[in-house]
Amino acid sequence: MRLSCGRTGSCHDNAVAESFFATLKNEMYYRGSFATRADTKHAVIRFIEAEYNRKRPHSTIGYQIPAKAMEAFFERTRPTAGELPMAA
């Protein structure tokens, strides 16, 4: 199975995507063997959710762990008591 990124955009977006896919290939894909596409898909999701987003600091978000950065974002944007949420 070939893992690649087909998106285009600014050089900064592409650098982040290339870095992610290099990490995914080196730390997950090349270390395992997968019988089916479904097995590969589950392994990728497990890697992203359990390892990449929960343990690895990322330079693009100030060397924070993505899960912690997301928690902080939701905490900052949570409506206070009596405040109505903004409509989309």
UniProtKB/TrEMBL annotation:
Transmembrane segments: none
InterPro entries: Integrase_cat-core, RNaseH-like_sf, RNaseH_sf, Transposase_IS3/IS150/IS904
Annotated source species: Ellagibacter isourolithinifaciens
Name of the protein this chain belongs to: Transposase
PANTHER family named among the record's database cross-references: TRANSPOSASE INSF FOR INSERTION SEQUENCE IS3B-RELATED, TRANSPOSASE INSO FOR INSERTION SEQUENCE ELEMENT IS911B-RELATED
Residue ranges constituting the Integrase catalytic domain according to the UniProt record: 2-66
Gene Ontology molecular function: any one: nucleic acid binding
Biological processes, Gene Ontology terms: DNA integration
Gene3D superfamilies noted in UniProt: Ribonuclease H-like superfamily/Ribonuclease H
